[in-house]
Write a structure and sequence with these properties.
Layout lengths: L4 E4 L4 E4 L7 H8 L4 E7 L2 H11 L5 E7 L8 H13 L6 E7 L1 H13 L6 E5 L2 H7 L4 E6 L2 E8 L4 E4 L9 H18 L1 H14 L6 H20 L14 H10 L6 H18 L7 H12 L12 H10 L3 E2 L2 E4 L2 E3 L2 E2 L8 E3 L1 H10 L1
Parallel strand pairs: 2-9, 3-4, 3-5, 5-6, 6-9
Antiparallel strand pairs: 1-2, 7-8, 10-11, 11-14, 12-13
The structure holds nicotinamide-adenine-dinucleotide and zinc ion (ZN).
Length: 363
Amino acid sequence: MVKPETVTLAGYSIHVGRGLIDQVGKLARAAVKAHRWAIISDTNVAPLYGARVAASFGDAQVDAFTVPAGEAHKTREHWARLTDELLATGFARDGAIIALGGGMVGDLAGFVAATYMRGIPFVQVPTTLLAMIDASIGGKTGVDTKAGKNLVGAFHDPMAVIADPQTLTTLSERELRSGAAEAIKHGVIADVGYFEKTAAELPAALKDPAGEAMQQIIFGSIRIKSAVVGADAKEQGLRKTLNFGHTIGHALEAASGFDLLHGEAIAMGMVYETMLAEKLGIAEAGTVARLAGALGSGIGMPRSFAVAFGRESLRGYLHADKKSRDGALELALPKRIGMMAGAGKGWVIPVPDDAILEMIAKS
Ligand SMILES: NC(=O)c1ccc[n+]([C@@H]2O[C@H](COP(=O)([O-])OP(=O)(O)OC[C@H]3O[C@@H](n4cnc5c(N)ncnc54)[C@H](O)[C@@H]3O)[C@@H](O)[C@H]2O)c1
Ligand SMILES: [Zn+2]
C-alpha cells in the first residue's frame, strides 16, 4: 500500500493517499469542529462513493445532497436549490459541507459554503485528476452564467482537501488524460524536474491511476499549485502563471461548443501560447517541441481540432476571457520549461489578438 502524504502549504492540509475515501470523516472532523455535515455530490459520483464517505462519519449527523452531473448544472439555480434544501433541514453555522466530486461539484458546493449564512466551513474531496491537482486547491469557488464560465463566485478556502487516487479508477480515460494536461502545465510554470519526471511517467501512470507513480504526480502537482497560491492568493501577480495555456485554451474550448474537454483545450492553448512565446523571442528555442512531445505522444492530447470557427468568432471568445484588459490580451508565457516570463512585470505579457489569430490560422 502506498502511504498517504500530506502537505500543509496554503493554510490547510491536503491529504493524498489510496484508501482515504474511507477516512474522510476522520480527517474532516480533525480539520473542522462541526456538529453536522452535508455531503454535496453529483449523480455520477454519489452512487460510487457517497455511502462510503457518509459511513466514514460514524454516528455523526450526515445529510446527502445531489446535483445532476455536468458543467451545465454549475449554475445559480442549483446553488439556490441546494441552499434552500440546507435551510429546510435546519442546517446552521455549526454545520460543514463536504464537496465530493470533480471540479464542477467542488466549485458549486464551495460557493454554497462561501455564501451560506455568510460562509461556513467546507472540505474538498476531489474525485477527478483535474480536481485533485487543480480545482480543489486555491479557494476559488463559483458558478457559470449565460455570459460565461465562473463569472459569479467567491474566494473561500476549504478547511482540508482529501484526495484518494483510487477513486480515479472509475473515471473515464478521456477525463483522466485531460486532467493530466494540468500536471504538465504545473511543470512548465514552475519546475523542470517535475515536468521531465511527469512527462516520462504519465503514460504508464494513466494506465494505473491508483498506483505509486500517479500518487507522486498528484502530490508534486499539488505542491506546485499550493506554493503559487500561497504566495499570491488573490491573483495579483504570480498566480497569473497558472493561467498559462488558458487564454487561448478557453477560447478554443468555447469555440468547440465544449466538445473539447477542458484539459484538451488547455493542451492546445499551451502549445499555441508557447509557439507565440518562441516567435516573440520570449521562450527559448525548442520549448514548443518539448511541450508538444509531452502532451501529444506522452498523454495523447490532440494538437488541433476539426471544428470550423471563424476568425471573428474566435476573437470574440478570446476577449470574453476575464484576462483581457482594454482590448489587449495579457498572456502568461513561458521563458523555458520550468520558468515563466514576466517576473517583475506582473507575470503577464500583452499580446495583440491579431498575432494570436494569425498564428492559429497558420498552424
Ligand atoms: N476552482 C478552481 O480553481 C478551478 C480550477 C480548474 C477548474 N475548475 C472547474 O472545475 C470544473 C471541471 O472539473 P472536472 O474536470 O473535474 O469536471 P466534472 O466535475 O464535471 O467531472 C467530470 C465528469 O466525471 C464524473 N466523475 C467525477 N469523478 C468521478 C469518478 N471518480 N468516477 C467516475 N466519474 C467521475 C463527473 O460526474 C463528470 O461527469 C469546471 O467547472 C472548472 O471551471 C475550477
Ligand atoms: Zn485549467
